[in-house]
């Protein structure tokens, strides 16, 4: 449903920021900006993905609730586009930037540039490989989430059988952390055999294509474990096309479409990343820093545990929030 909502968006991301900013303040160090609110810029990844769309919309709503204007745009995992968007935020004199970054190393320079310009940066969902630049780095506990997802996967697989893995974007630290988390659990079961790993870049269409290829190479596949829900949903579509509804598929994120697939029995489970809570906390910490010079958090790097979603609780998952 999210894809349909944003299918017609054709405005350039930088232009979107320039058109919608309308900042009433100077920067995070300006007392007038603190009193009058100002503009918060939210920069995320692909808005066609419900995870990142929810992240952006929740952050925007919270910023407006706290008295700021806010806009969001997507870098689409392109570091150059991310740099352009941060430059636009500096030009617009944003009072803070909420950033889901485009690479743990590639994002260090742009975050430093914003910080040098007096604009505090608050990272959500993805860390950078340096501390002391961003004011906060708030992420899901991906290792813990991968472990609980893998445990469910092993349980449904009865601890035996051939399986394949769909891996996310190589430049995203979350991708490797989840893959390692899966391996840390599944490696304890010698009768479970990993036949192949393929990178599908968090993308549903790529998940479909990679699953078709792996299924042709390994017709005896019994299970698929995926780094996110979109790749898992692509795998399910490929398996259904091949008449292989017997294959166990595990996702990660807790997306609305994935929750529905869990209810329908197409997905054995997903791992909820509490992205709505993370986005809310980032804006609250930005507000605190703008007003007091402190985030209110105990440390820059903060980790929030994930929740396993199965048929038992999937019906209670709405827009990345578990209601019961």
Q: How far apart, in Å, are the first and last alpha carbons?
A: 23 Å
> Beta-strand level of the residues, as a percent range?
15-25%
For this structure, the CATH topology of the largest domain is Rossmann fold
Question: What's the alpha carbon Rg, rounded to whole Å?
Answer: 20 Å
The ordered string of helix (H) and strand (E) elements is: HHHEHEHEHEEHEHEHEHEHEHEEEE
Number of separate helices: 12
How is this structure best summarized?
It holds the Pfam family Peripla_BP_4. This protein has 324 residues and is α/β, with parallel strands linked by helices.
Topology, element by element:
Layout: H1 2-6, H2 13-20, H3 31-36, E1 39-44, H4 50-65, E2 69-74, H5 79-91, E3 96-99, H6 108-116, E4 121-124, E5 136-140, H7 142-156, E6 161-167, H8 173-186, E7 192-199, H9 204-217, E8 223-226, H10 229-241, E9 248-250, H11 256-264, E10 270-272, H12 275-292, E11 301-304, E12 307-309, E13 317-318, E14 321-322
